[in-house]
Protein backbone atom coordinates (compact mmCIF):
# COMPACT_ATOMS: atom_id res chain seq x y z
CA UNK A 1 0.00 0.00 0.00
CA UNK A 2 2.66 2.43 1.10
CA UNK A 3 4.88 1.81 -1.90
CA UNK A 4 1.93 2.18 -4.27
CA UNK A 5 1.09 5.55 -2.75
CA UNK A 6 4.70 6.61 -3.07
CA UNK A 7 4.83 5.56 -6.70
CA UNK A 8 1.81 7.63 -7.59
CA UNK A 9 3.13 10.62 -5.67
CA UNK A 10 6.32 10.38 -7.72
CA UNK A 11 4.29 10.17 -10.93
CA UNK A 12 2.25 13.22 -9.97
CA UNK A 13 5.37 15.19 -9.09
CA UNK A 14 7.01 14.26 -12.38
CA UNK A 15 4.10 15.78 -14.30
CA UNK A 16 3.45 15.07 -17.97
CA UNK A 17 5.98 13.11 -20.00
CA UNK A 18 8.67 15.49 -21.32
CA UNK A 19 8.08 14.09 -24.79
CA UNK A 20 4.86 16.14 -24.93
CA UNK A 21 6.85 19.39 -24.72
CA UNK A 22 9.35 17.98 -27.20
CA UNK A 23 6.72 17.19 -29.81
CA UNK A 24 4.96 20.51 -29.27
CA UNK A 25 8.19 22.37 -29.91
CA UNK A 26 8.92 20.16 -32.95
CA UNK A 27 5.51 21.14 -34.29
CA UNK A 28 6.14 24.85 -33.63
CA UNK A 29 9.51 24.62 -35.35
CA UNK A 30 7.86 23.02 -38.37
CA UNK A 31 5.21 25.75 -38.44
CA UNK A 32 7.90 28.45 -38.36
CA UNK A 33 9.88 26.67 -41.09
CA UNK A 34 6.82 26.27 -43.32
CA UNK A 35 6.01 29.94 -42.81
CA UNK A 36 9.56 30.89 -43.81
CA UNK A 37 9.42 28.87 -47.03
CA UNK A 38 5.91 30.12 -47.88
CA UNK A 39 7.06 33.69 -47.22
CA UNK A 40 9.95 33.33 -49.64
CA UNK A 41 7.71 31.99 -52.39
CA UNK A 42 5.10 34.69 -51.73
CA UNK A 43 7.80 37.37 -51.86
CA UNK A 44 6.99 38.43 -48.31
CA UNK A 45 10.43 37.34 -47.19
CA UNK A 46 13.69 37.79 -49.05
CA UNK A 47 14.66 34.51 -50.67
CA UNK A 48 17.76 33.01 -49.20
CA UNK A 49 18.99 29.60 -50.37
CA UNK A 50 20.61 28.74 -47.03
CA UNK A 51 17.48 29.68 -45.08
CA UNK A 52 15.34 27.66 -47.49
CA UNK A 53 17.63 24.68 -47.01
CA UNK A 54 17.57 25.00 -43.22
CA UNK A 55 13.78 25.31 -43.13
CA UNK A 56 13.22 22.31 -45.40
CA UNK A 57 15.62 20.29 -43.26
CA UNK A 58 13.72 21.33 -40.11
CA UNK A 59 10.55 19.80 -41.53
CA UNK A 60 12.30 16.71 -42.88
CA UNK A 61 13.94 15.97 -39.54
CA UNK A 62 10.65 16.23 -37.59
CA UNK A 63 8.40 14.14 -39.82
CA UNK A 64 8.45 10.43 -40.69
CA UNK A 65 9.86 8.15 -37.95
CA UNK A 66 10.68 11.10 -35.64
CA UNK A 67 7.08 12.28 -35.62
CA UNK A 68 5.83 8.73 -35.02
CA UNK A 69 8.22 8.28 -32.09
CA UNK A 70 6.99 11.49 -30.45
CA UNK A 71 3.47 10.13 -29.87
CA UNK A 72 3.74 7.08 -27.58
CA UNK A 73 0.38 5.79 -26.31
CA UNK A 74 0.88 6.80 -22.69
CA UNK A 75 1.26 10.48 -23.63
CA UNK A 76 -1.94 10.90 -25.64
CA UNK A 77 -5.01 12.80 -24.57
CA UNK A 78 -5.48 15.81 -22.26
CA UNK A 79 -3.73 17.95 -21.22
CA UNK A 80 -1.87 17.59 -24.53
CA UNK A 81 -3.55 18.39 -27.82
CA UNK A 82 -3.02 14.84 -29.10
CA UNK A 83 -6.31 12.96 -29.35
CA UNK A 84 -6.66 9.47 -27.89
CA UNK A 85 -7.90 8.39 -31.34
CA UNK A 86 -4.25 8.26 -32.45
CA UNK A 87 -4.08 4.91 -30.69
CA UNK A 88 -7.21 3.55 -32.36
CA UNK A 89 -6.02 4.65 -35.79
CA UNK A 90 -2.27 4.08 -35.47
CA UNK A 91 -1.81 2.89 -39.04
CA UNK A 92 -3.54 5.97 -40.45
CA UNK A 93 -1.56 8.29 -38.16
CA UNK A 94 1.70 6.62 -39.11
CA UNK A 95 0.85 6.62 -42.82
CA UNK A 96 0.30 10.39 -42.64
CA UNK A 97 3.57 10.86 -40.75
CA UNK A 98 5.43 8.82 -43.37
CA UNK A 99 3.71 10.56 -46.29
CA UNK A 100 4.63 14.02 -45.03
CA UNK A 101 8.12 12.66 -44.31
CA UNK A 102 8.48 11.49 -47.91
CA UNK A 103 7.37 14.90 -49.23
CA UNK A 104 9.66 16.73 -46.81
CA UNK A 105 12.61 14.52 -47.78
CA UNK A 106 11.95 15.38 -51.43
CA UNK A 107 11.71 19.08 -50.62
CA UNK A 108 14.90 18.96 -48.54
CA UNK A 109 16.76 17.27 -51.41
CA UNK A 110 15.64 20.04 -53.75
CA UNK A 111 16.56 22.70 -51.20
CA UNK A 112 20.00 21.12 -50.90
CA UNK A 113 20.59 22.03 -54.55
CA UNK A 114 18.67 25.32 -54.42
CA UNK A 115 20.06 28.06 -56.64
CA UNK A 116 21.07 31.50 -55.35
CA UNK A 117 17.76 33.01 -56.45
CA UNK A 118 14.31 31.54 -57.03
CA UNK A 119 13.95 30.10 -60.52
CA UNK A 120 10.65 29.64 -62.35
CA UNK A 121 10.88 25.87 -62.15
CA UNK A 122 10.70 26.09 -58.35
CA UNK A 123 7.34 27.80 -58.54
CA UNK A 124 3.85 26.39 -58.36
CA UNK A 125 2.48 25.66 -61.80
CA UNK A 126 5.77 24.87 -63.50
CA UNK A 127 5.48 21.08 -63.11
CA UNK A 128 5.14 18.63 -65.98
CA UNK A 129 1.47 18.01 -65.21
CA UNK A 130 0.60 21.53 -66.39
CA UNK A 131 -0.05 20.34 -69.92
CA UNK A 132 -3.80 19.87 -70.44
CA UNK A 133 -6.56 18.80 -68.13
CA UNK A 134 -7.92 20.35 -65.01
CA UNK A 135 -5.21 21.89 -62.90
CA UNK A 136 -6.68 20.78 -59.64
CA UNK A 137 -7.57 17.34 -60.85
CA UNK A 138 -4.27 16.45 -62.46
CA UNK A 139 -1.53 17.87 -60.34
CA UNK A 140 -2.00 15.92 -57.13
CA UNK A 141 -1.95 12.72 -59.16
CA UNK A 142 1.31 13.72 -60.83
CA UNK A 143 2.74 14.58 -57.43
CA UNK A 144 1.94 11.10 -56.16
CA UNK A 145 3.55 9.54 -59.20
CA UNK A 146 6.86 11.36 -58.85
CA UNK A 147 7.21 13.98 -56.14
CA UNK A 148 10.77 14.75 -57.30
CA UNK A 149 9.31 16.34 -60.44
CA UNK A 150 7.00 18.59 -58.45
CA UNK A 151 8.16 22.21 -58.03
CA UNK A 152 9.32 23.14 -54.51
CA UNK A 153 6.46 25.55 -53.93
CA UNK A 154 3.91 22.89 -54.83
CA UNK A 155 5.64 20.40 -52.53
CA UNK A 156 5.24 22.87 -49.69
CA UNK A 157 1.50 23.06 -50.40
CA UNK A 158 1.23 19.27 -50.35
CA UNK A 159 3.14 19.21 -47.06
CA UNK A 160 0.73 21.76 -45.56
CA UNK A 161 -2.19 19.60 -46.67
CA UNK A 162 -0.75 16.72 -44.67
CA UNK A 163 -0.35 18.99 -41.60
CA UNK A 164 -4.04 19.90 -41.88
CA UNK A 165 -5.22 16.35 -42.57
CA UNK A 166 -3.51 15.08 -39.47
CA UNK A 167 -4.65 17.98 -37.28
CA UNK A 168 -8.26 17.73 -38.36
CA UNK A 169 -8.39 14.12 -37.31
CA UNK A 170 -5.85 13.79 -34.51
CA UNK A 171 -5.40 17.16 -32.86
CA UNK A 172 -7.71 18.85 -30.40
CA UNK A 173 -7.43 22.28 -32.10
CA UNK A 174 -6.74 22.52 -35.80
CA UNK A 175 -5.03 25.71 -37.00
CA UNK A 176 -1.83 24.98 -38.91
CA UNK A 177 0.39 28.05 -39.26
CA UNK A 178 -1.94 30.30 -37.30
CA UNK A 179 -0.34 29.77 -33.94
C1 LIG B 1 0.66 12.81 -38.35
C2 LIG B 1 0.03 13.91 -37.63
C3 LIG B 1 0.56 15.32 -37.69
C4 LIG B 1 1.23 15.93 -38.72
C5 LIG B 1 1.60 15.37 -40.08
C6 LIG B 1 1.48 17.29 -38.28
N1 LIG B 1 1.00 17.48 -37.03
FE1 LIG B 1 1.09 19.22 -35.96
N2 LIG B 1 0.21 18.29 -34.39
C7 LIG B 1 -0.26 17.01 -34.37
C8 LIG B 1 -0.81 16.70 -33.07
C9 LIG B 1 -1.43 15.39 -32.66
C10 LIG B 1 -0.63 17.86 -32.28
C11 LIG B 1 -0.96 18.05 -30.79
C12 LIG B 1 0.31 17.68 -30.01
C13 LIG B 1 0.23 17.90 -28.51
O1 LIG B 1 -0.43 18.86 -28.06
O2 LIG B 1 0.85 17.12 -27.78
C14 LIG B 1 -0.01 18.85 -33.16
C15 LIG B 1 0.31 20.14 -32.76
C16 LIG B 1 0.79 21.14 -33.60
C17 LIG B 1 1.03 22.51 -33.21
C18 LIG B 1 0.79 23.10 -31.82
C19 LIG B 1 2.00 22.83 -30.95
C20 LIG B 1 1.83 23.40 -29.56
O3 LIG B 1 2.51 24.35 -29.23
O4 LIG B 1 1.01 22.88 -28.79
C21 LIG B 1 1.49 23.16 -34.32
C22 LIG B 1 1.88 24.63 -34.41
C23 LIG B 1 1.58 22.19 -35.40
N3 LIG B 1 1.14 20.96 -34.92
C24 LIG B 1 2.04 22.46 -36.66
C25 LIG B 1 2.23 21.49 -37.65
C26 LIG B 1 2.75 21.77 -38.98
C27 LIG B 1 3.15 23.12 -39.50
C28 LIG B 1 2.77 20.57 -39.64
C29 LIG B 1 3.22 20.28 -41.03
C30 LIG B 1 4.51 20.76 -41.46
C31 LIG B 1 2.26 19.56 -38.72
N4 LIG B 1 1.94 20.15 -37.53
C32 LIG B 1 2.12 18.22 -39.06
C33 LIG B 1 -0.23 16.11 -35.40
C34 LIG B 1 0.41 16.31 -36.63
TrEMBL record:
InterPro entries: Cyt_c/b562 (IPR010980), Cyt_c_II (IPR002321)
Name the UniProt record assigns to this protein: Cytochrome c
Pfam families in the record: Cytochrom_C_2
Region forming the signal peptide: none
Domain of life, source organism: Bacteria
